[in-house]
Amino acid sequence: MSEPPTRIGFGMSSPGRPAAGRGAAEEEPAEEKKILPPDAKISLAEERAETGIDEVFNSLDAELVGLAPVKNRIREIAALLLVDRARSRFGLSTSRPNLHMSFTGSPGTGKTTVAMRMADMLHRLGYLRRGHLVSVTRDDLVGQYVGHTAPKTKEVLKRAMGGVLFIDEAYYLYRADNERDYGQESIEILLQVMENHREDLVVILAGYKDRMDSFFVSNPGMSSRIAHHIDFPDYTLDELEGIGKLMMQAEGYSFTPKAAKTFREYLDRRKGQPRFANARSVRNAIERARLRHASRMMTTDEAVGRDELTTLKPEDFLGSRVFTEPNDETTTD
Amino acid sequence: MRITQGTFSFLPDLTDAEITAQIQYALDNKWPCSVEFTDDPHPRNVYWDMWGLPMFDLADAAGVLAEVNACRKAKPEQYIRLNAYNANYGKQTVALSFIVQRPSDEPGFRLDRQDTHDRTINYTLHPYAADAPPGRRYNGQQ
C-alpha cells in the first residue's frame, strides 16, 4: 500500500519545525493591522460609529434616570479607550489602563445595572474579549473550611475572564472581628489576579458607601489597585418619579393625572421614612399598586376594557401604609 | 521519538496563541475543558492524572490557558494534554484532546520480543522513560 502524497510529514517532524511555525504565527497578526504613517488623519467620529458605543450611551441616557456623575465618568473612560484605540493605529504605545472600579452608593441606586452596561461598553470598545458579567457575593468566593477558599475564588475568577467580575456587598469579604476568617485569603487571590490578569478581566466592587470606605481602610492594597471610585448619588424626587414612569411604561400601565400627583406625594413621604431603597422602593410601590388595582378590578361588576386594565388610579396608591400611618418626620422638601 | 497522540500531534507544536484559539473554539461549542498530565508515554496509558477539576461555565480561553500554564510550571518535563468534553450525547464524551506540552527529550520505545510456546513470539513496546521511577522519568525531573 502506498501512502497518498498529500499526507506530508507523517509522524516525523524535524526538531527545527516547531520553532519555524512559532515565528510565522507571531508575525501574522502584526501584518493584518497596518500601522498608519505619522502624517495620516483618522476620524474619531468614525471610530465611534464603528464601535457602536453611541448605542450604549443612548440606552444609558434613555433607561437610566439621573446618575449624572456616573454617566460622566463612563463617558470619560470611553473617550480614553477610543483615543487609545486611535493611538495604537499609529503604532504609538499605549499602556493598558487600569479599569478596576468600585461602585458605592445607597441601596437601589443602580449599581448592578450600570455594571452590566459597563461590561457591554468595554466589550464594544475592545477592552474586554467577551463582555459578560459574573455577579458574585461572599458566598461564591469564600470557602467554609481550610483549603476551600482558594479553589473556589479561582474558579469564579476563571469564569469571569474575558468579562466583568461584579462583587456585590464586597465589604463582607473582610471581617475585622475575626482574623482567621477565610475572606482575607480570597482578597489576596483577588489582588493578585487584578494585578496580573489586567487584560483578562475587570473587577467591580460594589457596596454601601460607609461600609466600603471602612473596607478600603482595612485593605489599602485593594483601594490602590482600583482606579475608579464611583459614587452613586441618591435620586431626587423628580428622578424617582421618572424612574417610576419608566417602570410603569415597561409593564404596560399608565396613570390618571390625579394618580400621578398621588404617586409623587407617596414618593415624597416614603423618601423620608427608614429603609428607603431608591429605585427598588419605587418598584415595590408599583408592584403593590398593581395588586390593589387587580383587587379593585375583581370587585367591580361592570365590564372592564383596555383602559380600565391599564390605568392606575389614586386609590391604588392611597391604600398604602405610607399614607395611613402618621407621618412622623417633620421635613418634606 | 516524538509521541503522536490526540489531535494535531502530526503538526508542529501549537503556539500559545493557537492553543488559545482551540480552547475558544471548544468553549464556544459549550465544551468544558480539563487539563491532564502524565510521565508514562505508552499509547495504551489512557489514565492521565488530572490537573484540577474540569472547568465548567467558562466564557473565555484565558482561564483555561492559565491552568495550562500553572500545570506547565509544576510539571515542566511531563506530557500535558487538554481535553474538551461534549455533554450533548448525555454522557461526557471527549470532543477534542491534544498535547500542549511534551518533555524536552523523548527517548522513545524499545521493542521487546518474548519467545513462548511452539515458535510463537510476543511483541511488546517498552518506553525507555519507564525504566526510571515515576516523577523522575524525563531528565530526572517532574
Number of helices of chain A: 16
- The helix/strand series of chain A, from N terminus to C terminus, equals HHHHEHEHHEHEHHEHEHHHEHH
- Which band does the percent of strand residues of chain A land in? 5-15%
Based on CA atoms alone, the radius of gyration of chain A comes out at 27 Å
Task: Point out poorly predicted stretches of chain B.
Answer: none
Strand order of the largest sheet of chain A: 2-3-4-1-5
Structural class category of chain A: alpha/beta
Biggest interface found: A-B, 27 and 21 residues
Which segments of chain A are poorly predicted (pLDDT under 50) over 5 or more consecutive residues? 1-31, 329-333
Q: How far apart are the first and last residues' alpha carbons of chain A, in Å? A: 94 Å
Order of strands in the sheet with the most strands of chain B? 2-1-3-4
Task: Describe how the helices and strands are arranged.
The complex is a heterodimer of chains A (333) and B (142).
Chain A: H1 16-32, H2 44-51, H3 53-63, H4 68-89, E1 101-105, H5 111-124, E2 133-136, H6 138-141, H7 149-160, E3 164-167, H8 183-196, E4 202-207, H9 209-218, H10 220-225, E5 228-232, H11 237-251, E6 254-255, H12 257-272, H13 278-299, H14 306-310, E7 311-312, H15 314-318, H16 321-324
Parallel strand pairs in A: 1-4, 1-5, 2-3, 3-4, 6-7
Helix pairs in contact in A: 7-8, 11-12, 11-13
Chain B: H1 16-28, E1 33-38, E2 49-55, H2 61-74, E3 79-86, E4 93-101, E5 109-115, E6 121-127
Antiparallel strand pairs in B: 1-2, 1-3, 3-4, 5-6
